[in-house]
Amino acid sequence: MTPLNTLALTVVTEADSSPLSFPVRRVVNAGYVGRNRQAVLAHIAELQREGIPPPAAVPALFRVTADNVTTAERIEVLGSETSGEAEYVLLVRAPGEIYVGVGSDHTDRSLERLCLGKSKQICKNVVSREVWRYEDVQPDWDALVLESWIWSGGAEETLYQSGKLGTILPPGQLLELVESRLADSGHDGLVLFSGTIPLLGGHLKTADHFRAVLRNPYSGRELHCGYRCEIAEELS
Fold this sequence. Notes:
The protein is an alpha+beta fold. It has helices at residues 37-49, 109-112, 116-121, 134-137, 171-181, and strands spanning 5-12, 17-24, 26-31, 60-64, 69-70, 74-77, 82-83, 86-94, 97-105, 107-108, 125-127, 130-133, 145-151, 158-164, 190-196, 209-215, 222-231.
């Protein structure tokens, strides 16, 4: 079956870089993925107080359409109540061919109060144009640092999230979870957004710009994802 979406990526290693044409065949967004289950349950309770319903299962998985993933630096949204969140992204060609990017599961927060799944679908999932081979960073995985920044207009950017990947579920566990809930076990063309780390200050914030970085503190190498949100003009 011809994929609906193909991402033009670059695989970066310590020695060189090479182009990767990645056909997207299915996209899954994970959520509530903290390794500390009590902290996850406390977060769910906080969201419930803001009117956001709890997920049907923890960790949660949400399917979005294959054409919903982009590397664009600008996205359109419907309304002002949307925000991004930093995540690691797995791009799977085969069990032994897995790439890692950094991305954002941009979400409509007003719709999230009504339907978690649709709040993911209505906004784009953005992923970095550069990716790493998973096997290259697997030994350092838990120490990798995920951060995000937000800003609007000409204001200075503000650090929004910061944490190590060791606080959220690792790739192997997430992939096993996806496989257990899919009708077939094929991973070819899978793009899996990992779920996010806690927000600094604990409160969702909207902004015109969002930027995420995945950094290896040992090698100093980084992946970057950044984009601007444009609110689609309403028709009178």
